[in-house]
Design brief:
With 326 residues, the protein is of the alpha/beta class. Helix content is 43%, strand content 20%. It has 2 domains: 131 residues, Nucleotidyltransferase, domain 5; 164 residues, Nucleotidyltransferase, domain 5 (2-Layer Sandwich), CATH 3.30.420.40. Strand 1 and strand 2 form a beta hairpin. The longest helix is centred in the last third of the chain and has 27 residues. Bound molecules: 5'-O-[(R)-(carboxyoxy)(hydroxy)phosphoryl]adenosine and zinc ion (ZN). It catalyses: L-threonylcarbamoyladenylate + adenosine(37) in tRNA = N(6)-L-threonylcarbamoyladenosine(37) in tRNA + AMP + H(+).
Length: 326
């Protein structure tokens, strides 16, 4: 079974050809980071225009590189939700045109389901498992009982973790996206600044990160601060909260296997911390390769195949939505 997957939910234009037997046949990904950098964040209208400009040339590159005959595709997978609506519209329209031309079905994929199952591209996790989704738009904990069976346990009440990385980077004038930049600076600094760990002692699995951003702002506005030390302090606070909430979820559910997914799971300190907890036998962390942590079409293809196997296809008039819950 082979699918071509289209991912355009935010600022990455991505396509992948994936087989349930052979794995990744080919993939292409174009980041729009340079386009949005000067604005300090993603500009939705520009994002949609970039997707429109780049999808067809990228498909040609993918087919040239792989020598793949598009007629071998069994169905087209695409990200339906959540995401920037204009960007999703471009991807859905492209997927529909391909499906119509090739006379193949369309399979809608939930972006977060793609993130959760990104781990399976490398190695499967025995279900049930916990999923900590940490991306630019989401910071959520789920109990995954099986494919398509997700129990929401808690999540951020305000900013997503990736979003706070990006906002804190903007406060410090570091550029976009902030996550990789803060990750790099933090390695050169010490977590010297006393920052809050919001809701860390709250008994629920909910989180909050906007107060942390405000505390960083106060230090920046005070002037004369070290970007390296502030990055290290911010990151330490974020990871303390994520770890505490994750351990609480393990305690509440009795499930120790954890998929840590989404763009922020590319973070080097996060990976080291969860790796250490795994070595100590406290949890069993599964973190995708950084290329699969951030947005990509391979994860959409993987989830697309699982959905198609369960008979899920999209009607011809399907329309994207910015935020359908998982
Ligand atoms: O999953 P993703 O690519 O897109 C969404 O679905 O939102 O996540 C993007 C987010 C951005 O906020 C970016 O700053 C963050 O992931 N990110 C990181 C790192 N790499 C990307 N955050 C922390 N450390 C990183 N190394
Ligand atoms: Zn994402």
């Amino acid at each position: 079974m082979i699918t071509l997957a289209v991912e355009t939910s935010c600022d990455e234009t991505a396509l992948a050809i994936y087989s349930d037997k052979e794995g990744i046949i080919g993939e292409v990904l174009l980041s729009q980071a340079k386009v949005h950098e000067q604005f300090g964040g993603v500009v939705p209208e520009l994002s949609a225009r970039e997707h429109t400009k780049n999808l067809l040339p990228l498909l040609k590159v993918l087919l040239d590189r792989t020598g793949f005959d598009l007629k071998r595709v069994d169905f087209i997978s695409f990200t339906l939700t959540p995401g920037l609506i204009l960007s999703l519209v471009v991807g859905v329209s492209f997927a529909k045109a391909l499906a119509y031309t090739l006379k193949k079905p369309l399979v809608p994929v939930h972006h977060l389901e793609g993130h959760i199952y990104s781990v399976f591209v490398e190695r499967p996790i025995e279900e049930p498992f916990l999923a900590l989704v940490v991306s630019g738009g989401h910071t959520d904990l789920y109990l995954v009982e099986g494919f398509g069976k997700y129990r929401f346990l808690g999540g951020t009440l305000d900013d997503a973790v990736g979003e706070s990385y990006d906002k804190v980077a903007r406060l410090m004038g570091l550029g976009y996206p902030g996550g990789p930049i803060i990750d790099r600076l933090a390695r050169q600094g010490e977590p010297k600044y006393p920052l809050p760990r919001p809701m860390i002692d709250d008994p629920s699995l909910n989180m909050s990160f906007s107060g942390l951003k405000t505390a960083v702002r106060k230090i920046v506005e005070g002037g004369n601060y070290s970007k390296e030390d502030l990055s290290a302090s911010f990151q330490r606070a974020v990871l303390d909260v994520l770890e505490a909430k994750l351990l609480k979820a393990v305690e509440l559910t009795g499930v120790k296997r954890v998929a840590v997914v989404g763009g922020v799971s590319a973070n080097s300190e996060l990976r080291e911390r969860f790796q250490k907890l795994t070595e100590k036998g406290i949890i069993s962390a599964y973190i995708p390769h950084p290329r699969l942590s951030t947005d990509n079409a391979v994860m959409i293809a993987y989830a697309g195949i699982e959905r198609f196997k369960r008979g899920i296809t999209a009607p011809e008039d399907i329309n994207p939505e910015p935020n359908i819950p998982l």
